[in-house]
Amino acid sequence: MKIKNAWIVFAVTLLITLPLRLYQLYFLSEKDTGFYTDGIRTTVIISSVLAVGAALMIMMSAMDRRGRAAYSPVRSVPAAVFGILTGLGVILECVASLFGIESLQSQITYAVLTILGIFAGIVLILSGSNFAAGKNTFEQQPLLALVPSIWGCACLVALFISFVAVVNVAENIYDTFTVILILLFLFHQAKLLARIDDEKSGKMIYMFGLPAALMALLTGISGFAQQFMGVTRSGLFPAGFYPVNILFALYILSFLAADSKSFAVRVSVDIHEFVKEDKPAEKGEEEQNAVPCQENCLAYLAKAYDSDIRFFDHTISPFMERIEKS
């Protein structure tokens, strides 16, 4: 139930902040300088709503009390399509970023980022193909799942190096938090796909996935709108990655939706199997084949949650025996 509320908060926050952000770009932005005519009033409103919405989504996801079963491969056409498109977008933009770099130091830095980005894009394409086929390659090759996270860390370091040389503006802050949240989502998704701490990782992908999708949609759509309008950009984030942000957001949302649906199916199947096993036998076989409810419960716990809980026979306390004898 808490996860459902987090989805509602995501939708409401996006419906408030995205129109405000587009209004700020269309009507309050100077085309020559990129500065806003109302100062920081609209920026404060957008930032406050984003902060409250992200905090609520993280808290609601963390407070979700549903027990998660072990992760099983997800089959989802939207997750497969957006995963492959995101991987292709990452590869194309990383290669395109090498052109136009003049200094040797920048060329070396972007060459490293490009190599990591190509491998990260390949892993994202592999993830999309896994979602299309309903399988999980990363359970046997867990280190592959970490490649997008490593690329995200390198991009975050490069952003900090670029942003530290200029005065902080709202666009740079939005872009930085977008990269941080996407990085955290990719890391916990890698743990989930590699079957490392399924229950905790399954909760973390919602805690960071929904805010990451929110920020990626906001920055991606607004950044693309700035390019379309020809407004001077005040931020330093690579303009070519704004469409990739939109693809990342759609990939995250489709994966979370598929995981929620798969989780509901797994729970219903477990309950159905438990009820089927616990169904009373025919009258003629009831005395021979009847199994105590206690044993059925223990078998279900051991099967679904790998539980070691055992019941012990009730015995009379030795202290009571002494009292009775005396």
Structural description of this entry:
The chain has 326 residues and is mostly helical. The protein has 2 domains: 2-272, no CATH class; 278-326, no CATH class. It contains 11 helices and no strands. Helix 5 (147-163) runs antiparallel to helix 6 (170-193) and helix 6 runs antiparallel to helix 7. The model is unreliable at 265-272 and 281-292 (pLDDT under 50).
Topology:
Blueprint: H1 2-27, H2 41-62, H3 77-96, H4 104-133, H5 147-163, H6 170-193, H7 198-229, H8 242-277, H9 283-289, H10 293-305, H11 318-325
Keywords: Membrane, Transmembrane, Transmembrane helix
Transmembrane segments: 7-27, 39-58, 79-101, 107-131, 143-167, 173-193, 205-225, 237-258
Descriptive labels:
single chain, mainly alpha, 2 domains, 11 helices, 0% strand
State the end-to-end CA separation: 58 Å
Structural class: mainly alpha
Instruction: Round the Cα radius of gyration to an integer and report it.
Output: 26 Å
Total domain count: 2
Which spans of ≥5 residues are poorly predicted at pLDDT below 50?
265-272, 281-292
Number of helices: 11
Strand content: under 5%
Order of helix and strand elements from N to C terminus: HHHHHHHHHHH
Give the overall pLDDT as a whole number: 81
What form results from the Cα inertia axes?
globular
The main β sheet shows up as: none
Tell me roughly what share of residues is in helical segments.
over 70%
Short description:
Keywords: Membrane, Transmembrane, Transmembrane helix. The chain crosses the membrane at residues 7-27, 39-58, 79-101, 107-131, 143-167, 173-193, 205-225, 237-258. The chain is built from 11 helices and no strands.
